[in-house]
Amino acid sequence: MNISIEQIETLLLIAAIVAMVARLLKIPYTVGLVLAGIALAFLPFIPDINLTKDLIFTIFLPPLIYEAALYIRWPELRRDLPVILTLATVGVLVSGAVTAAGMHYLA
């Protein structure tokens, strides 16, 4: 992972420009970032960044969760809370059971 300060600055500048353009076009910021990431993937001067578990869990995930918590609409959350809790408990248990059964019988 050889990335210089200049490359980080360039990526942050691109992210800021994407934020301004996304607001101007009235599209979600995340959609703009995905489109910009696809465009950057085809450029020859992109930095060599390997996506690792540590990079995702320590760099990308905490700011995303923090931003989601800041902009959550509490009345909508309270209204949807039974569905959210059902999916968070039953859904996780079912997916864990399916994964365990698949690993037991297929592996």
- Inertia-based shape: extended
Helix count equals 4
The SS-based structural class is mainly alpha
H and E order: HHHH
Percentage beta strand? under 5%
* Ends apart, CA distance between termini: 33 Å
Number of strands: 0
Low-confidence stretches: none
- What is the CA-atom radius of gyration, in angstroms? 19 Å
Chain-averaged pLDDT: 87
Biggest sheet record: none
What features would you describe in this structure?
By secondary structure, the chain is mainly α. 79% of the residues lie in helices and 0% in strands. The protein is built from 4 helices and no strands. The protein has helices at 5-25, 29-41, 53-70, 74-106. Helix 1 (5-25) packs across helix 2 (29-41). It is extended and about 45 Å long.
For this entry, give a set of tags.
single chain; 107 residues; mainly alpha; 4 helices; extended
In short:
Helix content is 79%, strand content 0%.
What is the topology?
Layout: H1 5-25, H2 29-41, H3 53-70, H4 74-106
Helix pairs in contact: 1-2
